[in-house]
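Quick question about two entries, pasted in order.
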Amino acid sequence: MSTSKSKNVAFVLRHSFVIRRSCFVIRLFSIIVSELPKTATGKVQKYVLRGKPAISKPFEFDGIAFASNIDERLAAIRKSNAAARSLLDGFRDTGGTRLKPAAAIYRFPSAIPTLWEAIADARNCLALACILNGWKTSIGELNNFLIRYSDYFDFYRRWPSENGNDFCYQGPSLEIRMRVPSNFTAQPYAYILPSQKMFDRPEPDERIFGALRTVWRRVHILQKVQPADYRQLRSLSVAYEACRVPQAMDNPLYDHGKHCSFWVAAIEALAHRARKGSGPTQVLDLLERREIRDRRVRRRRFTLVNKWATKKIKRFRLLNLVQRLYKRLYDSRNAFLHGNKLRIKLFVPPGLKEGVRLLDVAPLLYLTALEAELVPHQPVVATPLKKLSPAKLRTVIKSCLSRDNTLEDAFRRATDS
């Protein structure tokens, strides 16, 4: 690609990114507390603290909770642990305004065999439930005040020492232990704007959050794992990476290609079956399982799915709008990973609304696959309403009233359909 064409493509992608609305939510941090005071009964409680937007009520995960900065359970930590107190109270934005990181806490002793994995999986469940709801609610809208990127949920990589006087960190590239400075100050990512108070509460999709929490509980609490549970949690971890702000490679084309690849991998993990494996056919089958009620989104068109197939019946397939968008996402991933020439129409294909990129639609595709896996849907009612029972009639009316902000509506706002 020539230098002039490359600059033009980069400008279009950057412009497409800039005109999208910013997420007015502060970044999430994490703090690990190693030494905590004893309770009245003599038991020691251990907590893992992480910063996140102020929340009105904690999100509970059977012994693990994500609580606000002012939760009463954190009061004892502030009194006894100087390092934890500094981390809880030392975050500021670039203007010096104090930020309030939230906390992930757990009870000790814990019955969870793999505690850290359980905390990370719980974080992923909460993060994806909030992020997917943010994209479903705000895509194509002029303003967005919801969480749409997983950067807000990142752990802060400094932990209190055993005596509470030092900061520690052990990672792949660094091991450090240092005294807590008296003027300790920490900041969120520079590329994420701090939030106004009225916009900093996470809003998870309750159906998805409840279903994911059930999967998490089967794996980490009940130890009654179903065949699909591990791949669903693994898919969430890949989707968490896909949800980051696409900027780490400092090249718009490469960033978009990398994140499209993550999204395809996350969806393929959901569609994987033991003997059939996973690929575009399995993903298209999974997406088809999610009932689509809107006729514009449900409308099918013959689409080329395998240009190498010798038989026409295998080369083409009737696909609805959701499946066609996934086919575009899969093609963009292949173009990036196979070293093909990257063009602007791969990442901003025709048919999308102005200001909407293929990468913005990817969370909706993942949500479609997730709902097909986890959330049972009511079939389209063909029976006259007067013949329905009162309970069934209430269900139908509630479903009809909630269609203004359904997943189908999000696809309509994102496309020209």
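Here is the second entry:
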Amino acid sequence: MDNSEEIKIKDESEKTKKARVKLRKRLDILERNINEKELEKKVIEIHDRISRHSALRVVLKRKSISLFDNNENTAELSKKVNLVAEKLKEDSLIFMQSINNLNESLKEHLIIPKREESKSLEEDLDLLEN
């Protein structure tokens, strides 16, 4: 692009500038409030909330929960995934049938020398190559 063809971007409006300054001040205040003492305070609040609601917690007796259980407790497949899997299965069967049909039709069209005319497998291969 030539300099004459460049699109000029307008300067920010006063309203946008004021909003940007206001947001920057808010972020500065928030960043100043994040310190080790405030983090420890939040941790205590979280622990208190967990202990307050412990009576409502459901106790699992049949299953144990871990972060990753090697897919022992997998979710059921959705209808859409089941449909796609069935379609793939059907398509693969059709494909395999067509491959088998192709093999049969190729067998009919191949000319294979009789065993008595050739003496070894190498000679058979040479005949096929020529």
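Reply: Residues 14-54 form one domain. The chain has two domains: 14-54, 77-130. Hope that helps.
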